[in-house]
Amino acid sequence: MDSEVVVQEDMEGSWMLLSWMASCLMVFGGALPYVPQYQDIQRSGSSEGFSTRVCLVLLIANILRIFFWIGKQFELTLLLQSVMMILTMFAMLHLCCTVQNTNRVSTRQHRLSELDFRYFWKWSAFEDYLLFCFGFTVLCAVVTLLLLDSAVFVEALGSLAVMFEAMLGFPQLLQNFHNCSTKGMSVKMVLLWTAGDIFKTTYFVMNESPAQFWVCGSVQILIDVAILLQVLFYSQDTRVKLG
Fold it and tell me: Where, by residue number, does the polypeptide cross the bilayer (predicted)?
C-alpha cells in the first residue's frame, strides 16, 4: 500500500514538473523564432526580407489578449506569454529602425505625427511605434472598462485577439509573394514558428483552453506551411537557405 502511494506521488511530481516545463516553454518559446531573424538582420545590416507588419499583428493580438484575460481569466501562462511577445516585438522593431536609419540614403523621415496612411507602420523612429501601441492600449482600456460586464464583448475581444494572432505569418507570406523571393527571411524562424504552433495548439487542446486559441493555432500552422512552400518554390537551393 505504501509503495503504491510512493509511486502515485512520484507520478504526480513528474507530471507537475512536465507541466511547469511546458508552461515555461509556452512563455519563452514564442520569442525563440525571432532570435535567428534578429541575428540575420544584424549580420546582413538589412531588414528588407522581414515584414515588420508581423510585429504589428503580434502587438495588436497580444495587447487584445491581455484585455481578454482581464475579462475572462484563463491560464496565467498565456498572459505572461503575451507580455513576453510584446517585449520581443519591440526589440525587433528597434533593430529594424536602427538598421533602416543607418542605411537610409534620403534624409526624408516618416513620422506618425504626419498622419500619412501611405507610411503607416513604416515610420523612421522607434518612438512612433511605442506611441501607437500606447494609444491603442489606452483605447482598449477605455472600451474594456466600459463594456467589461458584457460577456458578448469579452468573447468578441478574445475572438479578435486570436484572429489577429492567427494571421501572424500572413504579412510575411504577402511580402514573399510581392518580392517573389524569401531572401532576407530566416527560414529557421519559420521552422520554429511551425514547431511552436504545433506545440501550443496541442497545449491548448490538452489544457481545454478557450476554443478561440486552438482554432488560432490551427490556422497559424497552415500559414506556416504555406511560407515553407514559398521557400521551396522561390529558392533554387533550399539547403543554402536552411544554413
Answer: 20-38, 50-70, 76-99, 129-148, 212-234
Q: Which residues of 162-191 are buried (b: 16+ CB within 10 A; e: fewer)?
A: bebbbbbbbbbbebbeebebbebbbbbbbb
- Burial (CB < 10 A; 0-12, 13-18, 19+), residue 126, is middle
* pLDDT tens-digit series, residues 211-235: 777 788 888 899 999 999 999 888 7
Q: What domains, with CATH codes, occur in the chain? A: 31-149 (no CATH), 158-242 (1.20.1280.290)
Report the alpha-carbon distance of residue 165 to residue 158 in Å, rounded.
Answer: 11
> In angstroms, what is the C-alpha Rg of the chain?
20
DSSP 195-223: HHHHHHHHHHHHTT--HHHHHHHHHHHHH
